[in-house]
Amino acid sequence: MPKLFSRDCKVKRLRTLQQFRECICGDEGYRFLIHDRDHIYSRELDASLKSLGVSVLKTPYKCPQANAFCERLIGSARRECLDFMIPFNEAHIRQILNSWTSHYNRGRPHSSLGPGIPDRSFPKAEVQTGHSIPKNRRIVVTSILGGLHHEYGLEEIAA
Prior knowledge:
Blueprint: H1 2-23, E1 32-35, H2 43-51, E2 55-58, H3 68-80, H4 90-106, E3 137-144, E4 149-156
Parallel strand pairs: 1-2
Antiparallel strand pairs: 3-4
């Protein structure tokens, strides 16, 4: 039984190394790779990555929360954006993620801020009770990512 486990681990390590070789060609400018201490990340794999010019950084031992922020951001990007779109090439996916990132940081409310938006580029609207729109304003809708998301705001009506 131990030999079978050892063989399976070796196959997984080789697959992992091959995937990294396919992703990291050398001309993208990758400098770091952060990984946990899973058994598929062997010393040989780390040495091979260093030969590709990538510095290997390991998460702290027995600290599963170390990459929670990264996992949360990647999960949000997938659930709110990438699961609904099919990118055609690398330039297209960069364009999609740039647009989504701008929406995520500037136009989307975050639950930890209540109804607040992290980077509000316009002055905060006066607080009103009830659902009424001031007479000198109208609602403006901005479509994000071809209508996948929308941002709403108030605009003064020209007199």
